[in-house]
UniProtKB/TrEMBL annotation:
Superkingdom classification of source: Bacteria
EC number per UniProt: 3.1.3.15
GO biological process terms on file: inositol metabolic process; L-histidine biosynthetic process; signal transduction
Name of this chain's protein: Histidinol-phosphatase
Cofactor: Mg(2+)
EC main group: hydrolase
Lineage: Bacteria, Pseudomonadati, Pseudomonadota, Alphaproteobacteria, Hyphomicrobiales
Species for this entry: Pseudoxanthobacter soli DSM 19599
């Protein structure tokens, strides 16, 4: 009698993250550039769009996690949290940059992070339309595209006066936060807007030097922390606390640049 082949147990690793991203990408791409409708989940006076692509991608990710790791916690932007307090918690933003998605711009991405204990242990940002997957574990980071794996390394030699700064929008900042952000921009070489999660991955890839934002949720940033740190960058809150829970975030290609930006953000 022929023995049945042994099926390896799933592991919390890059391969599993990539499988989650593939499932999410199939859902998202079915709705991209086809005029998908959007609901406003923010209520009167505000706008926070959500689409069938967001919901379908998150459902696909959650289904695979539940099958592989039924005791793990999950926090997702669209369907909330389960099993709070678990040792391992997956944090999901199925489409970070839904506005870009609705505009047909490939500047959105699927974010999947794993927090183990109190540490952002694994992270992925996938852009399925152009076929890029960014992965990190806090010690190393890589870009996978077209069967090629490229190690990521942030720029280590840029002072703020030479730096390219990015943020999703200048309208994120109000009052003292706006003044603090303006100080950083005035001291930098250039500023660009509108890339959402992609800006952080470009920082890890050595194309962007500094990302400054505010009002982020854990699902906006937790997956990006291991990528940035794995590439040699630094990411914290404006107060210097760990970034994985969100809030006011500053990410830099090097410790020296991070220190320069923090001094200006603190006034």
């Amino acid at each position: 009698m022929t023995a049945s082949p042994t099926v390896p147990a799933p592991s919390r690793d890059f391969a599993f993250l990539a499988a989650l991203a593939e499932a999410a990408g199939a859902e998202a791409l079915a709705h991209f550039r086809v005029g998908v409708a959007a609901d406003n989940k923010a209520g009167p006076g505000a706008y926070d769009p959500v689409t069938a692509a967001d919901r379908g991608a998150e459902a696909a990710i959650r289904r695979l996690i539940e099958e592989a790791f039924p005791a793990d916690g999950i926090i997702g932007e669209e369907f909330g949290a389960v099993r709070g307090g678990a040792e391992h918690t997956w944090i999901i933003d199925p489409i970070d940059g839904t506005r870009a998605f609705l505009a047909g711009l490939p500047l959105w991405g699927t974010l999947i992070g794993l927090v183990t204990g109190d540490r952002a242990a694994l992270g992925l940002m996938a852009q399925p339309y152009i076929g890029e997957v960014f992965l990190g574990d806090g010690r190393s980071a890589e870009l996978r595209r077209g069967g090629t794996i490229t190690p990521l390394r942030s720029r280590q030699d840029r002072a703020l006066g030479e730096a390219l700064v990015m943020s999703t929008s200048p309208h994120l900042f109000q009052g003292e936060e706006a003044a603090a952000f303006a100080r950083v921009v005035a001291a930098s070489r250039d500023v660009r807007y509108g890339a959402d999660c992609y800006a952080y991955c470009m920082l890890a890839a050595g194309q962007v030097d500094l990302v400054v934002e505010t009002g982020l949720k854990t699902y906006d940033i937790a997956a990006l922390v291991p990528i940035i740190e794995g590439a040699g960058g630094v990411v914290t809150t404006w107060d210097g606390a760990p970034a994985k829970d969100g809030g006011r975030i500053v990410a830099a290609g090097s410790r020296a640049l991070h220190d320069e930006a923090m001094a200006l953000l603190r006034g």
